[in-house]
């Protein structure tokens, strides 16, 4: 639906918003279309979209409400909502291979504005360029200052605040791998505290973002530094109290931030982890000494991240503990699940975000961030997360989410079906309470368990590590998953050639197709080998191996298409290396079968293993693709 407006009759900031959105969406100052009218009100939470005889009127209290109202107008829908969070943000992970191109980051900003979001964080461990630091972001698609400025230039008229999310203590393994940074290395991912060269480097980091972005807010990370002070630092200075080290470093970094007029945020987990012997973030009995609380730099705003809990009361208790810890209001970071996934995971997202939002309202939290991590290589089709972001906004700005309302709204913005995007979300495997034996419930805890499709993708055709582990959850898991994949493919198949505007439907189909061929191959291989069915083994080593290889080739091509659409080329090689390795393992499986048939070997020992498994918990590629140790 085309929208038209008269720039002389609306506020300048709304006119600038419409002009920017018009670069991508059917919005213009002339021509035939639905006329837009705007009415500013004093209530900053207000959004009301009403159809009038001469067009659509958007009553709004702040610019992000006006932008979301335009999203409704694109779908021809009326709406009345309360945008009661000051900050509604996303974090896009540009540190684990995918680095958004400038053009695609700008595309994301326009879509986010229409969904009602008013902040975007780019998580960049080292994916930005520093002067005289050639190994910082080396071959990682690192952003230049000018590239970030170009992204920020689009964010500003959209009313979206661009924020850097960096690391100033741990999670710096991408640079600490290089000998050039040996002088600031404590452990493999933590830099040396109290070391002047470390602070020179951090000053360069903060200077980059101070120059590149108009916002003065910055997230400096500092999470998951479990081995802080336990490597080279301990060799140089002896063992010291981790709380003291952490607070001392935070104070130094905040002093540098002050010099650039930057207002820092940090992840809060280390205060909770260091307060209990198990280093658990979610131990409600954690004891944080009063002197530690008092020593926390007052400039630092704490961000409580929790992507896992499904219980509103737990979130409330943790938020209450945070309130007694920092000097500033707490920021909540939930998750729209993209990490270790081939496609956005709707089940986990809705089950964790809904209670989180309820708790935040009751505890007076005003700022929400939805993280979209890329753990294990960032191979998710991140555009599929638009469906999750649309759901999360609908859930937050209404009494409860409504799939029919989202469907129409989503179609107006993206030109595709919200519900179709969720079909692909079932690439992941859910094992529910009723599916499990009492023994398995005791072993694995409370379902539903969401088993990762990506782990099935990486599973070796001979070793079958994931194959065995997942059967401990449910003995028929693979047979049932195979039927689910076939259903997904049937439902997605009619839309493969044209539905590319949000999650790339053809890519979801190729993911399902590859998984289907892999599971069928493993089932047939195990059966044929156990029965010594030589004819079937011969077929497996020839035609059926070729069929799996063709499916993987299709996935390789599909993955490359959606990658080059969105990201810089750096990082693409990781997925190609993994998928290329998977293909070679199928060729090796064919060779082993042929050697068995020729009498060169008497058995294939990997296929005779019947391990007493416990269920794989580690989802990383290197932990499931092989029983060996590498990388």
Task: Provide a descriptive summary of the structure in words.
With 631 residues, this protein is an alpha/beta fold. Helices cover 47% and strands 12% of the residues. The chain contains 23 helices and 16 strands. It has helices at residues 12-21, 63-74, 102-115, 145-158, 173-176, 196-212, 232-237, 242-259, 269-273, 290-295, 312-323, 346-363, 385-397, 403-414, 418-425, 438-444, 453-458, 465-471, 477-492, 505-531, 534-566, 572-597, 621-624; strands at residues 3-4, 27-28, 34-40, 46-52, 55-60, 79-82, 87-93, 119-123, 161-165, 217-219, 263-267, 301-305, 331-335, 367-372, 429-431, 449-451. Strands 7-8-9-10-11-12-13-14 form an eight-stranded parallel barrel, surrounded by five helices. The mean pLDDT is 95.
Put the structure in a nutshell.
With 631 residues, the chain is an alpha/beta fold. The chain has 23 helices and 16 strands.
């Amino acid at each position: 639906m085309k929208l038209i407006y008269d720039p002389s009759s609306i506020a300048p900031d709304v006119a600038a918003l419409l002009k920017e959105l018009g670069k991508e969406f059917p919005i213009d100052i002339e021509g035939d279309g639905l006329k837009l009218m705007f009415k500013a009100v004093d209530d900053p939470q207000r959004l009301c979209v009403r159809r009038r005889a001469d067009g659509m009127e958007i009553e709004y209290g702040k610019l992000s409400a006006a932008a979301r109202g335009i999203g409704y107008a694109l779908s021809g829908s009326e709406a009345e909502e309360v945008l009661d969070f000051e900050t509604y943000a996303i974090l896009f992970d540009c540190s684990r291979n995918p680095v958004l191109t400038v053009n695609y980051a700008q595309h994301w900003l326009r879509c986010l504005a229409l969904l009602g979001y008013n902040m975007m964080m780019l998580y960049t461990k080292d994916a930005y360029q520093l002067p005289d630091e050639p190994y910082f972001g080396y071959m990682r698609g690192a952003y230049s200052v000018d590239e970030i400025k170009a992204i920020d230039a689009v964010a500003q008229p959209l009313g979206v605040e661009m924020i850097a999310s960096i690391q100033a203590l741990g999670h710096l393994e991408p640079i600490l791998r290089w000998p050039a940074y040996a002088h600031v290395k404590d452990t493999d991912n933590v830099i040396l505290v109290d070391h002047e060269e470390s602070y020179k480097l951090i000053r360069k980091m903060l200077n980059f973002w101070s120059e590149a972005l108009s916002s003065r807010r910055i997230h400096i990370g500092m999470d998951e530094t479990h081995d802080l002070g336990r490597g080279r630092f301990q060799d140089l200075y002896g063992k010291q109290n981790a709380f003291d080290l952490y607070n001392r470093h935070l104070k130094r970094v905040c002093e540098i931030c002050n010099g650039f007029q930057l207002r820092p945020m940090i992840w809060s987990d280390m205060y909770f982890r260091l307060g209990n012997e198990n280093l658990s973030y979610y131990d409600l009995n954690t004891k944080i000494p009063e002197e530690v609380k008092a020593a926390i730099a007052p400039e630092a705003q704490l961000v409580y991240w929790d992507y896992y809990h499904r219980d509103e009361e737990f979130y409330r208790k943790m938020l209450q503990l945070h309130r007694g810890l920092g000097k500033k209001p707490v920021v909540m970071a939930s998750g729209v699940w993209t990490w270790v996934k081939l496609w956005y995971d709707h089940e986990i997202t809705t089950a964790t975000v809904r209670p989180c939002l309820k708790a935040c309202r009751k505890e007076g939290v005003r700022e929400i961030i939805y993280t979209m991590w890329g753990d294990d290589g960032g191979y998710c089709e991140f555009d599929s997360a638009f469906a999750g972001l649309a759901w999360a906004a609908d859930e937050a700005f209404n009494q409860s989410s409504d799939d029919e309302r989202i469907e129409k709204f989503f179609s107006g913005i993206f030109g595709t079906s919200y519900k179709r995007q969720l079909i692909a979300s079932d690439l992941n495997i859910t094992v529910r309470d009723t599916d499990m034996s009492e023994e398995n419930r005791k072993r694995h805890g409370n379902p539903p368990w969401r088993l990762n499709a990506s782990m099935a993708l990486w599973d070796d055709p001979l070793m079958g590590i994931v194959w065995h582990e997942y059967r401990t959850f449910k003995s028929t898991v693979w047979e049932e998953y195979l039927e689910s994949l076939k259903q997904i493919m049937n439902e997605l198949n009619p839309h493969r050639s044209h539905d590319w505007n949000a999650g790339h439907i053809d890519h979801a189909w190729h993911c399902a197709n590859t998984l289907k061929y892999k599971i069928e191959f493993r089932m047939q291989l195990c059966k044929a080998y156990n029965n010594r069915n030589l004819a079937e083994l011969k077929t497996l080593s020839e035609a059926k191996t070729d069929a799996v290889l063709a499916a993987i080739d299709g996935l390789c091509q599909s993955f490359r298409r959606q990658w080059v659409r969105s990201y810089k080329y750096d990082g693409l090689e990781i997925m190609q290396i993994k998928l290329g390795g998977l293909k070679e393992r199928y060729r090796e499986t064919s060779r082993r079968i042929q050697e068995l048939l020729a009498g060169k070997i008497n058995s294939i020992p990997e296929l005779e293993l019947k391990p007493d498994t416990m269920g794989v918990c580690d989802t990383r590629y290197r932990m499931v693709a092989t029983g060996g140790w590498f990388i």
